[in-house]
Amino acid sequence: MPEFAFKSDLHTHSTESDGVLTPAELVSEAARLGVSVIALTDHDTLSGLPEAISAGESLGITVIPGVDLSAEAGPNEIHILGYFVNYANQFLVETLSRFGCERFARIERIVIRLQKLGLPVQMERVIEIAGQGTIGRPHVARALIELGYVDSIGDAFDRFLGNGRAAFVPRQQVPAVQLVRLLRDSGAIPVLAHPLSTGDITATLLELIPAGLLGLETYYGEYSPDTRDQLRAIAESANLIPTGGSDFHGVGFKEGRDLGSAPVPPECVERLRKSWETQQERSS
Ligand code: AMP
Ligand code: ZN
Description:
- The protein is α/β, with parallel strands linked by helices.
- The chain is built from ten helices and seven strands.
């Protein structure tokens, strides 16, 4: 791993969505691992940010407020990370709360499909597993593990929950351009997450850059050095800020996904911050 002046992780999840550490535990784990800049990017919610920021203040860790929004693109997924989100922005909070309701309805339909397949997963148990966080397929996967139908979250996605599998239900379609605009309009910096998941990076960028996309996740936990080089070249040619992060959900979740395993060069964090400050100045 390259040595940088400080270690960062700009893509992490807590119990406020499908991660296993609370926001405060996540920040304290970052401190233990020597990660000094962390972005909390939970799926469709800003609810963990105050706790993470306050833990960061106590422990001397910089916490960048973030979020991870999802759109579907045929068989592929487009995730848009937002950095420096304003968690007091009422419109953003209300829109995310609507996404949360849509998530809930989708998971109910997935549970019904599983029941029809003869797997008696109970929605009440999935809700319990999700706790207070935004509900998602990984919570259904954990319920399937408990019942002994699958060995791991990956196994649950491969057999039942992944796109095109027996219990798959597509999400409510929100065009990715709308997510980019939502973030820009609220003053946040939108970044295309794990770009390989889009299926077609060029087409995705051609659509999202005019909508206001400002960054490309380049130093992603699971990506090889070659892939990172290619993405860095794309980011440079498109004048996008290269970002990165582990996409941490919990210890031992997947190879390459440990907290702090995908730091970015400090100048990328600086470019993100500058870009946010420039936006702030323009809108004031
Ligand atoms: P949802 O947000 O309900 O659509 O679930 C998608 C989330 O599930 C992703 O953001 C990942 O965190 C997780 N996920 C997707 N595919 C897999 C997989 N094959 N193994 C483990 N987790 C996965
Ligand atoms: Zn993520």
